[in-house]
Amino acid sequence: MSDQTTAAGEVNPEKLDPNMRLEDNVLRGFVWHSPDESPIRISGFAWYQQDHMYRRMPIDPSVNMPDAVHQLANCTAGGQISFRTDSARLAISVELTAPANMYHMPATGQCGFDVYVGEPGHQQFLSTARFDHHHQGYEVILFQLPKGETRHVTLNFPLYQGVGKVSVGIDEGASLLAPIPYASGEKILFYGTSITQGGCASRPGMAYTNILSRRIPLECINLGFSGNGKGEPEVARIISGIASPALLVLDYEANVQSCDQYSETLPKFIRIFREAHPIVPILVVSQIQYAAEICNSELLERRLRMNQIAIQTVRALTENGDCNLHFLDGEHLLGDADYHECTVDGVHPTDLGFFRMANGLTPVLQSILK
Asked: Quick check: 277 and 322 in contact, CB under 8 A?
């Protein structure tokens, strides 16, 4: 019997295909740096300077935060580490708050880091951390290139797990320089659901907010809370405390329990944000299509009713004088003829779905921010 199979016929791809094997990395000759160190830039965590944690909401908010949001805030979706280096090698050491534990999302997306090289607007994917998903931490080499030359590097944090500690390793003697600065100190804020958080991208860079961060030269803050983007006024007040927003994207329709709840929370959320930011643009995005709608008329009708609530809310507030309020119909973001091919479970987008969402959102955001 071959050692690649068992008596029951189980196949071990790692033995059959060398490209499927985890590398036995020997991490020698690296100099390790904390993201806290200058000139490395940490972005995507609005309260990092205050709390010094890789966390998406404040540890001690001024108002009561829903417990689920408090927990999900520890997921590091949207966080980024950026710098320039001429190191031919790049390694990363990561301590997670828990190992991978999702059934429909790859460990590389839930718990991994991926790396892009290139200046903003010209960034290209290079590699993803490959690690034993049963473990709560890993040390891996992200790239080993033939020669060292100065490159702009961006690392994306895991989407659905917390990170307690992370260090970046470069070659001894290699330079470490500041990244290219953002176009301004303003930030794009995305508030929403599990889809906003990045479920279920195969790696962090494919969450639609991270794709947009490579196209628009502003810091992006991911405030998607899986199953718990419900538009609570307390959450609206916390988000309103983020300084210098360039745009607020509200994409939480899919998590509200009823049309009545959406009719109540959407105008209230906008009003609370307006108290702090009277003229900052707000974009309301309605829900994407779900695959089951082709056989479930009630699901389709619910989405269409929610869509009308969003349209009517935006129209009423605009007619009342809010000139910086916008609406985007999410029905077409995954495409029309084959939208059902763009998710892992009929709801959460694959990389294809997120790429299409980003393509639909990019010109809208660019026009609003112009």
From this structure: no
